[in-house]
Amino acid sequence: MNKHFTFLGALALSAGLTLQAQNVNQLVVQANKLGAEIQPTLYGHFFEDINFGADGGLYAELIKNRSFEFPDKFAGWEIFGNVTLQDDGPFKRNPHYVRLGNPGHMHKHTGLENGGFFGIGLKANEKYRFTVWARGENQKISVELIDNASMGESQVITQQEVAINSKEWKKYEVILTSPVTFEKAHLRIFLTTPGTLDLEHVSLFPTDTWKGRENGLRKDLVQALVDTKPGVFRFPGGCIVEGTDLATRYNWKNSVGPVEDRPLNENRWHYSFPYRFFPDYFQTYGMGFYELFLLAEDMGAEPLPVVSCGLACQFQNDNPEAHVKVCDLGSYIQDALDLIEFANGSTDTRWGKLRADMGHPAPFNLKFIAVGNEQWGPEYPEHLKPFVEAIRKAYPDIHIIGSSGPNSEGDQFDYLWPEMKKLKVDLVDEHFYRPEDWFLKSGNRYDNYDRKGPKVFAGEYACHGKGKKWNHFEASLLEAAFLTGVERNADVVYMATYAPLLAHVEGWQWRPDLIWFDNLRSVRSCSWYVQSLYGHNKGTNVVPLTMDKQPVSGQEGQNGLFASAVWDEPTQTYIVKVTNVSDKTQKLNVEFKGLKKSVQLGEGTCTTLHSDNLDAENTLDNPNLIVPKESKISIENNVLNTEIGAKTFAVYKFVKTTK
């Protein structure tokens, strides 16, 4: 009886252990087999002036239409009294200015008022630099920041007087300090003396810009970019480089030199979506290529400028006459060569000298250039070929990036990849704004890519939920899952950048976006935290990680798990990233195999990103609703036994030590 009971008990115990083992996801990290080197550029940012991302956003200028060059010359302004428009100003490419004259009665007033971009945001006790180019003899203006909706005795928040005392054009400056925080202020200027006065390039910046630069960038937004630890920075955009027509494409040469003389350009995003229409959305080029190169340098990211290949947006142009003929591409090719000279040329070259004159004698050390954006068909390789030939001849060390078109698969994609190989571009830019099921099925997208061809730049991607195309946690979770496959294939994928980057809550055309902001505040989305966790835990080498000898990419039988592992040489750390997209907690057994007996992994950390509500997102009013949480985690004999919660992204880190 006892023997029979013992046998049955042992059998039951064995069955229980087997069942338990079946419920544990066994992950194996081949810790002794360092794989592909991970490029420093693997995770980064892509900036395009969409959603008021530049003027009214990252560019800290607070005045709209400061040079009176919008098609409606007084757009953004209210004028009163004797104000007239003139067109023979001191700046050749921005010739318009305003003349203020006597209103004709001692109790009437002459002046103008600007509401900025959805108002002018002021912070208590902060200083604002007002500058203006002016001419006039013995004239004065009152410069005021006001609250039009005030119920107080005065609308004025702060005020300073500026004396104008020159017959010739001269730049004047005054500092205003705001005693209050207010999101919707206006700038008002009164002529306070009899006579005539001319004003041009009316500007207002916070003095506390990023690094204190006068023509500076908004500090909190730059900090949000820096904090993800980006390795590459693509700019100035995609579609705006193409232009709705070539006349309004982004022209980098118009974006450098004195800021007062950079000509206005149309922004195609003001009319691309009639259901999100912003007719007063233009590009002043105040944040031009010089400022964007500086920003890349500040972030420690490789600059990656995009230039036009002579094809206007093909979505918007069926007529071949809308594009430059291949035989007429000379000036476009020269623009690309001159851009490289601007970035890298010595100060005795034309464009290198301009860079030095703007304040940066040292080269920007440009290594990459992209030619074209979401082009397709035979027109694109035909246009790209002469660019490749000219750049290879003049600058053989520059890496050239081509495109696979606007889609992540399909006829256009399948046609362009072989064409890019024929042209021997260094990287191919892939774009995918796709729904949830695409991301769930694409964890192994790059596993079978050609290892000998051009490398991949995943230049624009984001999960766009079906029926909920806005920021929400589930979309970010699926992006985290997808990126394990990007990381596992770091020998093929050299760069990846989410898009779009920035959006003003009152001026957006496209969502989801990485960072949202209003005039005073900004919020980092759940997708931002995914990017940051990858950027800060990139590592230096891929390490093989498998489950039943297969990559962990959400395959059948893998219980909704996606995973990758890397080794970081400077910190001697193994980093394992696991995303659980299932609705159940999953047990993990992670074994670090191949380590010498003298090597031991010590106590580590586990950082998780999770939300019970899959539709939840961080907001301006609740910016920390969903943020990573870090805790200590133990490991025994180089084996981690733990659990990962449902709908959770986790990063596990263990430092290698010697016994």
Number of strands: 34
CATH architecture label of the largest domain: Alpha-Beta Barrel
Mean pLDDT: 95
Point out poorly predicted stretches: 1-20
Please identify the top-level CATH class of the largest domain.
Alpha Beta
Distance between the termini: 50 Å
Percentage of β-strand residues: 25-35%
Question: Which homologous superfamily in CATH is the superfamily of the largest domain?
Answer: Glycosidases
Overall description:
- With 659 residues, the chain is α/β, with parallel strands linked by helices.
- It folds into three domains: 25-37 and 541-658, Golgi alpha-mannosidase II (Immunoglobulin-like, Sandwich); 43-59 and 212-534, Alpha-Beta Barrel (TIM Barrel); 77-208, Galactose-binding domain-like (Jelly Rolls).
- The strands form six sheets. Strands 3, 4, 5, 6, 7, 8, 9, 10 and 11 form a nine-stranded antiparallel β-sheet that branches.
- Helix 5 packs across helix 6 and helix 7 packs parallel to helix 8.
- The model is unreliable at 1-20 (pLDDT under 50).
